[in-house]
C-alpha cells in the first residue's frame, strides 16, 4: 500500500536516521587519509565547520520550500524562484550526483554480495536493486524504519570496531607533539571537498518535509542526522590519529586511503582480521542505508520534475526512471563511476550550498517570505553558505589539478 504524502505521527528518530544513513557512507573510511595532513585539530575544525554550514544549507532549502506544495522538490522551487536557466543547471547537478551515487552503490553492493556468496556480481546487483528499491517505491515510512535498523547496526558495529583503538589513544600521537612547529592548516583546504560530500544529505530534504508536513520537524531531523554523522566521524578520526603517528601515514596516503593499508598500519594496536570483518559489515550497512536514502530523494525529485502522480502507477514510473538507468550503467560499465565521482564533489557543492543560499535569499524577498519557518543567521548566514560553496568548488578543482598542498608523509613528520 503506497502511503499518503503525509504520515500521521512520523518519528524524529526515523528522519534523523535517514539523514545520518545518507551521510555516513563507506566514504568515511577515506577521511583519515584525507585529513592526515591537517591532523587532529584542523581536521576536526574542518568537519565541524562543514557540518554547521551543511546543516544550515539544508534548513535554507526548507525555508524556500515552505511556499510550495508538500510534493514540490528542487525542480519546482528552483524554477519558480531562480528562473529556467538556473533550474536547468540545478537539475543537472541534482540528478548527476544522485545518479552517480546510486550507480556506485549498486556496483559496490554486487561486489559485496559476490564476495559473501560467490554469486555473479551483475546478477547480485540486479537482485539488490529489485529488493531494496521497492522500499523506496513503497513509502518514506518504509525507508524510515529500515534506516533506523541500519543506523543502529552501524553505530554498534562502529563501536565494536574502534573500541580497541579508543582504549589505546596516545595524546602525544593524537596532537602530534613531536612535530614542533609543524604546518597543518594548509592541508585542511584539501579536506573540505571530502568533508562536504560526507554531509551530503540534501537529496532527502524535500522528502523529509513531505513526510513530516512541517518544516520545523524536518529541521530537527536534519540536525539530529548531521550530529550523528559528526560524532561518528570525530570518534573515527580521533581513534585513528590517536594510535597511528602522522609521520607513519605515508603508505596509507600513497594507496589513496585504502582500508587494507590503514588496517595493516594499525595491526600493532588491533586484531586486524576481526576489525576488518566489522568494517566490512559496517560498510555493507552504510551502502544500503545510503542507497535507500539517496534513492528516496532522487525518487521524489524525479516525481516533481516529471509531474508523476503519487499513486501506484505514478510511483512505478518514477521508480523505473530513478533506478533503471544507474542499474544499466552498473551492468554495462561497472567502474565508470570512479571517473565521474571525481567531479561529484563540485556538483554537490553547487546544489547543496550555492543554490540553497540563492533560494533562501530570493524566498525572503517574496510577500510573506519572512513569516513562518526561516533558517537562522540572517544575511550573514546566507553569505557564509554561499562563500563556503564557491570556495569548496574552487578547492575541489585545485585538488584535481594537484595545486593544493599534499602531505608527503613518510619516515618523518612534515
TrEMBL record:
GO terms for molecular function: aromatic amino acid transmembrane transporter activity. Its main location: membrane. Keywords: Amino-acid transport, Cell inner membrane, Cell membrane, Membrane, Transmembrane, Transmembrane helix, Transport. The chain crosses the membrane at residues 12-33, 39-65, 86-106, 118-137, 149-169, 184-201, 221-241, 278-299, 319-337, 343-360, 381-404. It comes from the Bacteria. Involved in transporting aromatic amino acids across the cytoplasmic membrane. This is Aromatic amino acid permease. It comes from Marinobacter segnicrescens.
